[in-house]
Here is the input.
Amino acid sequence: MRIAVTGAAGQIGRVVCTGLRDGHGHDVVGLDVTRAAGVESVDVRDTEALTPLFAGCDSVVHLASIAGETTFETALDTHLRTTHSVLEAMRSASVPRIVYASSNHAVGFTPSAASVGVDVRPRPDTFYGLGKAAAEALCSLYVDRHGLEVVCLRIGSFRERPTTRRHLSTWLSPGDAVRLIQACVKAPGMDYAVVYGISANTRRWWDLEPGRALGYHPEDDAETFAGQILAADESEDDRFDARHVGGDFCRPDVPVEEPI
Ligand code: 15L
Here is the structure.
């Protein structure tokens, strides 16, 4: 398959591009606003620039965004406007499927529970989460209006390894991230699906069944690291983190990141 990846120079993008290319033999078109080896430099908000780069692609994996809290205006830009230009370029280039990197923060104020489903109401914890929830809705519009195939991934905590108590529930390992995206680009009979992007964590808060239905079978479990993580006393921050699925993004004073 030929797959375009936006945000290819980012933390998840680098792992996913290598996994899709070297592990699964796909022809990967890496795109990013940041210059990096093997990555085409492009502003993802520029539909006209994107369209020829999407030519001949079977799917777009849209990872590009600012991965944290911003101002309201920046959130609109980095999540909604960016996703709109990607969807429009896909229409022009006749690309049938998008795998959209949403986030657990789209539903971050959902109280933590043993198995939160994909059908909970949008409950963003930040303008970041609001942007992700709104972009999920935008993708849904393109399914119903234009017949696009969409998978929205509410990604948990993508890390080399889990380092906090919350990560024991929210971790997504690099290996599982590749397995997840591979399942999403390959799944037959797609129209619109939402999937939680986490590993098979014993202490998970989210339902893995929607992912399994698409062929995502995670192999890692944060529990492997539980001994080390739980050796430290539970802190006040840990207790706050455990209240809602969005963890410390639910704090009113969550720090704001600057755009690149
Ligand atoms: C995300 O969506 C963020 O991009 C990342 O910075 C982490 O905070 C992660 O969620 C998380 O919830 O751990």
